[in-house]
Amino acid sequence: MSQDLGRIRAFVQVFDAGGFSAAARQHGKSKALLSKYVTDLEDYLGVRLMNRTTRKLGLTEAGEAYYREASALLQQLDDLDATISDQTAEPRGLIRVSAPRNFGETTLAPAIFAFIARNPLISVDLRLEDRYVDLVEEGIDVALRITTLSDSSLIARKISDMRHAICASPELIARVGTPQSGEALRNMPCVLDTNMSSHSSWRFIENGQPISVQVSGPARVNSPVASLQAALAGLGFAVLPTYLADPHIAAGRLVRVLEDRMPEGPSLTAVYPHRRHLAGKVRALIDHLVGWFETNPIR
User: Fold this and answer.
1) CA-CA 20 to 30 A from 202: which of 74, 81, 93, 156?
2) What confidence score (pLDDT) does residue 285 get?
3) pLDDT: is 152 or 218 the higher one?
4) What is residue 137's predicted lDDT score, i.e. its pLDDT?
């Protein structure tokens, strides 16, 4: 059986590499051995799998069908080996993590650094930026997002609940009044954060029913920190994550309104590319974050 797998793997490696010489260099095997394995496999199957010329290597019709199934089989076996190894091995290697900048700086970084401290064989490349990151294209292992998942090509795991508050400065409330309903904000100045999927259509619960209110105002930003600064400057009501707003509410610099009308907020979610096998180091990080935010809930 091991010899059969060796021949199958050689066939896949040669085609993936584009030739016998390239496969020999990539996998540390002799060109002659790889050629023998592929020939033995063809003899065993009774069909030619590859068309070989001095300049080009291609697959026959039978070879294309066999390659599809064989490469899938080898991937499943490799995934199984990695799964078993991950269950017994200490996490090691580099993890590339993406997260929103302000959340990463204020709240996520301590959790990540605690994970590194507990796992000395792990290193983390933490990339903090307020833009949509293509995980596959940019080689990201896991992204932490404050959102609801919409990309079906990704797998997600909830890390923690998040809360948002509508806040304004005491000076603004003294000037325009305290809104008594979500609908009242339609005629009041608001700060629009374009990072929010519904940045100009705010959602509320009125009489047990969800409603959307179209809002507008003098400031449009693409950062919750900038939105916070605009609210502190008295430019309008702003939807702010409570981990940013709460210190200013406690100090009297902001006033929270419509607390009983706010719908359930988004979640902090770990998303990663759709793979059969999640690397053990990534799984260990996600497990750590779930535990961390259970002990240190996001306020």
Assistant:
1) 156
2) 95
3) 218
4) 78
Higher pLDDT, 292 or 26: 292
Q: DSSP per residue over the chain, as a string? A: -HHHHHHHHHHHHHHHHTSHHHHHHHHT--HHHHHHHHHHHHHHHTS--EEE-SS-EEE-HHHHHHHHHHHHHHHHHHHHHHHHHHHHSPP-EEEEEEE-HHHIIIIIHHHHHHHHHH-TTEEEEEEE-SS---HHHHT-SEEEEEE----TTEEEEEEEE--EEEEE-HHHHHHH---SSGGGGGGSEEEEETTSTTTTEEEEEETTEEEEEE-EEEEEES-HHHHHHHHHTTS-BEEEEHHHHHHHHHTTS-EEE-GGGPPP--EEEEEEE--SS--HHHHHHHHHHHHHHHHS---
Average of per-residue pLDDT across 145-166: 80
The pTM assigned to this predicted structure is: 0.62
Of residues 233 and 194, the one with the higher pLDDT is: 233
**Average pLDDT, integer, range 98-104:** 91
Structure tokens, 39: 């020939």
Tens of pLDDT, residue by residue over 113-136, are 999 999 999 999 999 987 878 887
Q: Is the pLDDT of residue 98 over 90?
A: yes
Query: Domain 93-162+266-295 is classified in which CATH homologous superfamily?
Result: Periplasmic binding protein-like II (3.40.190.10)
Same fold, 93-162+266-295 and 164-261: yes
The domain limits of the chain are 2-88, 93-162+266-295, 164-261
CATH class of 164-261: alpha beta
Q: Which fold has domain 2-88?
A: Arc Repressor Mutant, subunit A (1.10.10)
